[in-house]
Design goal:
Helix content: 40-55%
Number of helices: 9
Radius of gyration: 20 Å
Mean pLDDT: 90
Strand content: under 5%
Low-confidence stretches: 198-214
Shape: elongated
Largest sheet: 3 strands, parallel
Number of strands: 3
Length: 214
C-alpha cells in the first residue's frame, strides 16, 4: 500500500486562527521523527492540519521535513475579509459581530479553541479604529470571528433573504484592491515562513511517537 501524505496528531494545540501553543522543542523532536519515517517509507508528505497562522513553527516544519510537507489551512481568506470590513464599513461589522457572538456557543461545538467571548468587549463598546485590532489581530476576538463564519454567511431574515452575505460580497468587490493587498500580505507571511532553509540531517531522539491521525 502507498499513500501521499500522513497527518500526525502532533503534541500541543493547533487551534484555529492563532499561533501554535505548546512546547516547541518537543514538537520539533516529533516532527523530525515523523520526517525520518516518511523518508524511509517512500517520501510521503507530513500533513499539518489546522496550519493557518502557525508562524512560529513554519521554519522548523520546512527544515525538519526538507520541504516535503502539506499545510492545511482554513479561514485565512475570511479573516482578511473581516479585516477589510472593519476598516471600510464598521457599522456592517458590528451587525455581523453582534449576530455571530450570539451563535458562538453553537458554532464552537465542532472546534477545539480557547477563544472566549467573555474576554472581548462587545463591538458597540469599541471605537471604529480599534475593531480590527480587537477582532482580527487579538486571539480571542479573532477566534470568535473565525469559527462563526458559517453563521455570518447563512443568516437570513424572516423573508428568507441573506442578511449579510450579499453585503459582504458587494463590499469586497468594491474594495477588491485592499482585499487583495491584505490577502497578499497575510498569505505571504505563510509562504515566507515555510520557505526555510533545509536543516542538516538530525537523528530523532528515542521516545514514543505521536502518530494518530486527526
Amino acid at each position: 500500500m502507498s499513500f501521499q501524505g500522513f497527518a500526525p496528531r502532533f503534541v500541543g494545540e493547533f487551534e484555529k486562527g492563532v499561533d501554535y501553543k505548546g512546547e516547541r522543542q518537543i514538537l520539533e523532536d516529533s516532527v523530525v521523527e515523523h520526517a525520518v519515517l516518511a523518508r524511509a517509507h517512500g517520501g510521503y508528505k507530513i500533513s499539518v492540519h489546522s496550519g493557518s497562522d502557525k508562524f512560529s513553527i513554519y521554519p522548523m516544519i520546512a527544515q525538519a521535513t526538507k520541504g516535503c510537507f502539506h499545510l492545511k489551512t482554513a479561514g485565512t481568506s475570511w479573516m482578511e475579509a473581516v479585516r477589510v470590513i472593519t476598516r471600510k464599513d464598521p457599522a456592517l461589522f458590528r451587525e455581523i459581530c453582534n449576530h455571530v457572538r450570539g451563535q458562538f456557543t453553537k458554532d464552537v461545538a465542532s472546534y477545539h479553541i480557547s477563544g472566549d467571548p467573555a474576554k472581548v468587549p462587545a463591538p458597540s463598546a469599541i471605537a471604529d479604529q480599534d475593531l480590527e485590532r480587537v477582532y482580527v489581530d487579538q486571539d480571542d476576538g479573532r477566534q470568535i470571528m473565525h469559527v462563526t463564519y458559517g453563521s455570518a454567511f447563512t443568516a437570513k431574515d424572516d423573508a428568507g433573504r441573506w442578511i449579510f452575505r450579499d453585503r459582504i460580497f458587494r463590499l469586497l468587490a468594491r474594495e477588491e484592491d485592499l482585499y487583495t493587498k491584505c490577502l497578499w500580505k497575510h498569505l505571504g507571511r505563510h509562504v515566507k515562513g515555510l520557505a526555510g532553509k533545509r536543516a542538516p540531517h538530525r537523528s530523532p531522539k528515542k521516545r514514543p511517537l505521536v502518530g494518530t491521525k486527526r
